[in-house]
Amino acid sequence: MRSDRAVTLQDIADRLGVSRSTASFAITGRGRVSDEMRQRVLGVAAELGYRPNAVARNLKGSRTGMLALRLPPDSTAMSYYMEATFGIVEEADRAGMIVFMLPTRLGPEQVNQLPADAVIVLDPDLQDPVVRTLLDGRIPVVTGEPVPAGLPEPRATVTSEHEPAVHELMDHLHEQGARRPAILFTAFQGDWALTVRTAFESWCIEHDVRPRVSEVAHPAAPEVIHDAVSALLAEADDPVDAILAVTDGTVLSVVTSAQRLGRRVGEDLLVAALVDSEVLALTQPSITAIDLHPREIGRRCVRAALDVIDQDAAQEAPVSAAPLRTVVPIVVNRRASTLGSALAETS
C-alpha cells in the first residue's frame, strides 16, 4: 500500500539508482545532466507524484531562497541594466527565488550578513569598492561580464564575445564609407568597457587609422557629451566621419549634439552604439548597434548562480580558482546609412 508521506528526491534517486543530486539537477534543469537522464527522472517524478517544496528545500539546506543583485553605480537609467534586471527577476521567479537589489553603499560587515544564497554583480567595476568586498565575502558571487584584472575571481561569470562584435561593427561602418572614426568612451573601469575600447583601437591600427578616443565622465551630462562631440568634429583638416558611442545612455546625446553642430547624421556623419536598445531602431536615421541580449544575460546569471548554490549543497566538486564561464551570443544590428545617402538602411 502506498505511504501517505510526501515523495522525496531520494525516492526518485533510489528508483533510478542515481545520486540525489543528479535527480535534483534533472528536475531543476540545472547542472550537467543528459537529456535522456532528465527525461527518466521527470518520468519517475510524475509517476510517484513528486511535488517540489521550495520552502522546505531552503530550510533544510540553510538557504534563504534569495539572490542579491548589484548594479554599477549611476547605471539605473540605462536600458541595458533595466533589461538585464528583468531577465534576472523572471528567471529567479521560475526557480522560486526572490531578488533584492543592493544599496549603493555597503560595508564589509553588511556584506557578510546579507540574507542571500548568492550575489549577482553586473559589469563589476574596478573602482567600485563594494565589488571587491563582495568578492572577498562568504557568499558566492556570479558576474555578468568578467571582473577586471586586480579583483578576486567570482564563482561563475556570464559574458559575450565583444571583441569580434566590435570589429564587425567597425567593418560595417568602413563599408558604409567611414574612414575617420572616433569613440566616445565613458570613464567606466569594467572589463567590458576596457575590452571594447581595446578592440576599437586594435581595429584602427589594423586599418592604418588614427585611433581617436574622447573620454568623458560616467555618467556624462548632455552638455559634457556636446562639448566632446564638438571637439571631435572641429578638426578642420581631418574631420571625424563616424562616432561610436560606448553606452546606450550617450548615443542619443551624440546624435542631438551632431545635429546642433550642423552635421546630418546618416549623410555626412555616421553614429553607432556598442549597446542596442529599442529606441535606436526608431530614430531617424536608425542607429547601428550591438545587441547584447541583456535579458538573456540576466537569465544566464541566475542559472549560473543556481548551479553554484546546488554545487555547494551537493559538495560534489571542489571550488575552482577559475570561474565557470557562460558565453551568450550577440549580434550587430546594421542600420547605418552610407555616407552621402539621404536614407538609412534598416535591418
Features:
347 residues; alpha/beta; disordered C terminus
What does this structure look like?
- With 347 residues, the chain is of the alpha/beta class.
- The protein has twelve helices and twelve strands.
- The strands form two sheets. The protein has a six-stranded parallel beta sheet with strand order 2-1-3-4-5-11, with helices on both faces.
- Helix 9 links the parallel strand 6 and strand 7.
- It is elongated.
- It starts with 8 loop residues before the first helix and ends in a 14-residue tail after the last strand.
Please give the structural blueprint.
Layout: H1 9-16, H2 20-28, H3 35-48, H4 54-60, E1 66-70, H5 79-94, E2 98-101, H6 108-112, E3 118-122, H7 129-135, E4 141-144, E5 156-159, H8 162-175, E6 181-186, H9 191-206, E7 212-216, H10 222-233, E8 242-245, H11 251-260, E9 270-273, E10 288-291, H12 294-314, E11 324-327, E12 331-333
Parallel strand pairs: 1-2, 1-3, 3-4, 4-5, 5-11, 6-7, 6-8, 8-9, 9-10
Antiparallel strand pairs: 10-12
Helix pairs in contact: 1-2, 1-3, 2-3, 5-12, 8-9, 10-11
Question: In oligomeric terms, what are we looking at?
Answer: single chain
Rounded to an integer in angstroms, the radius of gyration calculated over CA atoms is 24 Å
How do the SSEs run, as a string of H and E? HHHHEHEHEHEEHEHEHEHEEHEE
Q: Please give the count of helices.
A: 12
Largest sheet: 6 strands, parallel
Number of strands: 12
Assign an overall shape: elongated
Short précis:
This protein has helices spanning 9-16, 20-28, 35-48, 54-60, 79-94, 108-112, 129-135, 162-175, 191-206, 222-233, 251-260, 294-314; strands spanning 66-70, 98-101, 118-122, 141-144, 156-159, 181-186, 212-216, 242-245, 270-273, 288-291, 324-327, 331-333.
